[in-house]
């Protein structure tokens, strides 16, 4: 490209008058709500997909990465303590375990259990605050996954497949519903630490769909969005020149490469980034929140401050129209407890108990819980057999998740595991069924949300899931 094509405005006014399809169009796009690129990959697809009367407008997924122990949180097993120290009874099928600890002695649960709320929901003393929201929770004790290790488990819980490369659930929701707020991403991911989630960005990727449907990562800490503000020493005029020139190059490059969805997504990201400079600070800065709200989320305690901030940001994003918000706690498989589970889970449960309860209460008092679906769980549970004497191995054959709000009937328990909590034996919900249920709660028939890939009609559940009718109120 010759230097004659580079924009050299002498003033801001002249720049905007001569920018052509550059930043002047970008500013017009922000003011008018119209994108520079046609919205065929967003609105056109969503317009063809039937919507039903699902209540949920947004999903907040609380992902406890590493695998929390259902046996010590929501699924009490008295027989486990009776047989502690013995081998798994011969009457049980021998499972395939990640670390090969199938013949290890059974490990007792040291938890104290109590029933809470009018529903009498069982919750352990590791989550004492959860007693206050017992009647809002639908606890699913019969979840099943195919992922025996973290890579496969996290991949399937996010994408439906143990192998990376398929679109994530958040991408499917974005594809099926579009976005309610053009100034913020439709799919946001927030981690609690700088550690990366297992499989990295593939956990919230778009797979074979256009890249514009993938999640946008917000980091932990006081500045979750990198480079949101203009760098020190860079004038506004210089920033305008740079953005206009980049957009000009991108548009020229894209003109002969319209099938390149990564390039299309990159151009869209520049448009979105411009709009976010005015909208995102309002969504993620918590200075206007009253002290009582900060305390409700546990932001007055060191132990709960990080996840409390994530949960409060999730509420602010949901009320501003973000469709799918996924919060990772324990990023980097911190919930994994092959040893010293008492110390590990005690610390992690303390970090999330108050923030989660604060989130549910805050949504409820604002009238947002009915239209916000909150999902809790990890990629699998833990085994009743011990590992290294004081830990538990991975258990994908029967574990617990819960849902609240968004049209879910609270105060109930769905399904059951066997007497030791090893296998789901009643009302099994595979990951495919969980995904189908979430989409149904959002008003989508998952069998109708289809994306053609290489001549094959693809669905989130790979044609295997069923929405669970009993979860819906």
UniProtKB/TrEMBL annotation:
<protein>
    <recommendedName>
        <fullName>Sulfatase</fullName>
    </recommendedName>
</protein>
<dbReference type="InterPro" id="IPR006311">
    <property type="entry name" value="TAT_signal"/>
</dbReference>
<dbReference type="Pfam" id="PF07394">
    <property type="entry name" value="DUF1501"/>
</dbReference>
<dbReference type="InterPro" id="IPR017850">
    <property type="entry name" value="Alkaline_phosphatase_core_sf"/>
</dbReference>
<dbReference type="InterPro" id="IPR010869">
    <property type="entry name" value="DUF1501"/>
</dbReference>
